[in-house]
Amino acid sequence: QAQLKESGGGSVKPGDSLRLSCTISVSGRIYSSHIMGWFRQSPGKEREFVAAIRWGYGTTHYSDGVKGRFTISRNSAEKTVDLQMNSLKPEDTAVYFCAYDRNGLSTSAADYEYWGQGTQVTVSS
Questions:
Q1: Backbone phi and psi for residue 109, each to the nearest 5 degrees, phi listed first
Q2: Nearest partner of 29 among 60, 59, 1, judged by Cα
Q3: Which has the closest alpha carbon to 121: 16, 44, 36?
Q4: For 19-74, how does the pLDDT look when each residue is reduced to its tens digit (9 = 90+)?
């Protein structure tokens, strides 16, 4: 079992930065091959992949829409995963979710086993 909790959302202006954090509580061990991901969902749209990181190796993967602006990182000791978001745009407005997958890297929300409740990010002038 695992529980995830996001924090750090808020309202910012275009061009601003924001840092999201996800705290993970697990009953067992997080293995090197396990994946932590960030997704987002806007009203009326499907949940979309943003970024993912392989827990032990630190390898990362980003959607084309955020590559170069967002950075995912993890702290193994504290069991947290952060998403640094720079140069934010109005189209980044969404609820952002942290997710945990034990089966391997995937950009599909359906493949992730555990989810947080989400945190709202609003980018508006």
A1: -60, -30
A2: 1
A3: 16
A4: 999 999 998 888 888 999 999 999 999 999 999 999 988 899 999 999 999 999 99
**Which tokens hold the place of 84?**
């640094």
Chain centre to alpha carbon of residue 6: 9
For 14, list phi and psi in degrees, rounded to 5: -55, 135
Token pair 């009203």: residue: 43
98: CB partners within 8 A, 6+ apart? 4, 5, 6, 20, 22, 24, 36, 37, 38, 81, 115, 116
Residue among 20, 14, 2, 111 at smallest CA distance from 74? 20
Length of the chain: 125
pLDDT, tens only, 62-109: 999 999 999 999 998 999 999 999 999 999 999 999 999 998 888 999
- Report the Cα 8 to chain-centroid distance in Å: 11
Distance CA 94, CA 118 (A): 10
Q: Which amino acid is at 118?
A: G
